Amino acid sequence: MATDFEIGRVVAVDTAQVTIELNRDLKGMSRITYEGPQEVGRINSYVIIPVGARRLVAMVTRIVLVEEAEMKADRTMVALPAARRLMKATLIGTIDGSVFRQGVSLFPVLDSPVHLAGRSDLDAIFGPVEQAGDKNPDSDKPGCCIPIGESVVMQGRPIRIDPDAFFGKHAAILGSTGSGKSCTIASLIQAIHEQQAVKRTTFVILDTNGEYRTAFQKQKEDGTWEEAATRRTLFIPSDPSITADRLVIPYWFMNAEDFVRLFQASKGVQRPVLLEALRISRNEADAVSQLALLREELIHEFNRIWSLSGKDERTSRDVRDLAEGLKRRIDQDDLTEAWTEAMGTYKITKEDVDNALSKIIENATKFIDDNKFPKVLPADARKAIQDAMDPIYQKLTGAHIGEGGGSSGRSADAPFHFDKLKFRSLYLEQVLRREESGGARARDYCGTMLLRIDRLLADRRFDFLFGPVGEALPKPSHALATFLRDILGIGPAAEANIKLTSEADLPKGVLPFYDRQRNKESAFDVVILDLSLLATEVLENVTALIGRLILEFLQRLGEHGGEGARGSFPVVLVLEEAQNYIQQPRSSEDESISRTVFERIAREGRKYGLSLVVASQRPSELSKTVLSQCNSFIVHRLQNPEDLRYFKEIVPGIYGPMLEQIPALAPQTALVLGECVPAPALVRIREARPVPRSRDPKFYRYWVADQAPSIDVEAICILWEGTKDADNKEEAK
């Protein structure tokens, strides 16, 4: 039967491609086989090259007609030109028996026969058209069981992906605007939920365009929403007018680096000031009294003096200035009550501290000459300074100075509640005064940072992060755990495990994620975080915060959850329009908190069960680190030369000839390649039902409509302006 399928011979071989000359007796570009008529030489079709007991699989990428004229031996005449039909094909894998594996370890020789791929060959590559295991694949090795569409070349043959390979090693869905990326993502998730064996999933979609809700929920006539399918979906809007369900991420969930990037604190003075204020704020529950603040300041300043005095540099003047500044502060501040408590708690008096500081100033001043030039403190002076501080330091910390004692409590990174108003008016000011007492112009250097902090805290657009302007957010119990349960779709915790804060202490609507858990709403398979109305300047910070919290939670689950806990709770994080917050740096100074976080997830997330699905219309603007970590690609039409060149640099060179067709792909058609499919395939992606809200606008329909749609401009602008009183709408009219 092999002769029924034979179409030509190999006439050239290299490490990635073969050149095939079609048989001259092949009439037209089709072959009649016992399986029926088959086209020959169709781009993206497959051919088989037998090599011993194995069969090499190649994908057709080019076919040409070459005319050759033959000169007779006596050179008296030339025969009419004869056409040679040549076909190029990329080697993609090997069939051994009935098992297909990607890659080749042996190559054909010249004149090897080339066959059309028969039904049994295609079954070996892509699996049977009707798979017996579709309803209940092996949970440990599911294989290619999730249908994403049909082959464009092989009519009626479904193309399936391996979910463990697709999600386990990150994936990218690329394509120009309008090419079908959103529908592909929705269709893929819907296909997973249609599998009878699937009982639960955890998809978290960062929806920057507000498209995905309609793909998983449908709106009823009364304006409310219900599930569009059997799978439960949680939609969290960023619209500030939807107070009951809106996205709220409490500011204290941010770590030190998040605050540094949000407040744009520069290196030098601003960053240390901010971090110290944050550290004190995180411990404000333990530092509500004057005594606690006094203790904190003494420990901090003694550590600074000790650090400077031990340097082999000319630091004598710096040591003196620090000691004089601390002495002035404790003299000026009204700390009578604190000193009384210090005597009772630590057996320390103000006179003890004054005497110690006077000795430090005396020893440091000896090594500043008449011209005000500082000198290096010798060993005996350092010893005298240590002896002056150590008795007080030991009473405050239980350790000798220089032995690792000092400030205890939480670090600036701990996601622990603190009062934003006290942070700005009390702790930040305290740190600034401390710095200025040593002669530094800290307030001048921190001016731009302070202005930005004040602006962000006073801007109602950032209520979702900092809470109402001028009001302190209450401290609820288990806030971080409740938030993570919410965005990860995990059901409410058992009452035996935690006790949530009551509505009396935390009114409804302040933290909507808390309300959902108090209402005992069940687990969700898909969580859509609508970020479309977030201010652009905080988009990077918010996406980075969400990604980091999920990653660090899964890391801690793996470390502290017991044997087998690592990777036991897989999460898929879908990054829509990822180029907006994971950009390739344009210079060495181009810093981005979200790029840092998602590059870390791309490198480490797989180990903990966190997968990225990166969707972008501009791959050339995406971080190379993130894109290069993706092992599976669904590529729709890309027409920008920069995007095409960038993508070709990312994927293996063997795919090069296949990528030439990407600019000409039709909508809903994509080239699927990588570890998720047995072989690269041109696929007509299955339709999403229902579809995301990403349809192209119908301009002509609007132009020819008999009646223009009614647009309530005033209502939209009132919401935009942030007017809370609904009665203002009538006044606006």
TrEMBL record:
Q: Which InterPro entries does this UniProt record tie to the protein?
A: HerA-like, HerA_central, P-loop_NTPase
| Keywords from the UniProt entry | ATP-binding, Helicase, Hydrolase, Nucleotide-binding
| GO terms, molecular function | helicase activity
The answer to whether keyword Plastid applies is: no
Task: Cite a single Pfam family from the UniProt record.
Answer: DUF87
Query: Helicase HerA central domain spans which residues?
Result: 146-333
PANTHER family per UniProt? HELICASE MJ1565-RELATED
- Please give the name of this protein: Bipolar DNA helicase HerA
Species name: Candidatus Saccharicenans subterraneus
